[in-house]
Amino acid sequence: MFQGFVEWLEQTPASLFLSDTTGFWTWLIIPMSQCVHIICIGLLLICVGILNFRLLGIGNDRRSFAQLASALMPWIWTCLIILFLTGILQTVAEPGRELLNIGFKVKMLLLLTVVLITIFYERSVRNDPQYWEHSPERRRMGQLLASVSLILWIGVAASGRMIAYLDMRHDF
Known about the structure:
The protein is 79% helix and 0% strand. The chain has 7 helices and no strands. The two termini are 24 Å apart.
C-alpha cells in the first residue's frame, strides 16, 4: 500500500518537475532547499540544546527555564516549520528514497516523540513558570526528560543523515 503511494507520488507533476536535474530551476531548488534544511537543523539543535542543558543544570542559570523557553520556543517552532516545508520539497523530489527508507521512518518516529516533549515543556511553563523548580522530584523529572530529549534530537539528526546511506531502492 505504501509502495503504491510512493509510485503515485513519483508520477505527480511536482515530483517529475523536482526530480528533473537537467532543468536550471530544479537544479537550483533542491540544493537551496537542502542548504536551508541543514542551517535550520543546526539552529534547532542549538536552541533545544540550550533548553535541555538548562534543565540539566548545565550552563548559565541567570535565566529561568521559563524565560529561556519563552525566548527559544519561537525559534524552535519556526525552524520546525521551515524543516517541514523543505522536507516536503525534498520528499516530493525523491519519494522512494525518503518514504521507503528505514532512516526516514526512524527519524519521523523520533521527531514525533521529541516534538511532544517540546510541547510539554512549553505548556508546563506557560501554566506555571516555576513548574520545574517546585520540588526535587520535578527537577529530577526535568533532568530525565532533558536527557531523553537530547538523545532523541541526536537520533533525529543521525537518522536523517543515514537516509543517504540506507537507500533500499536498488539491488546490490
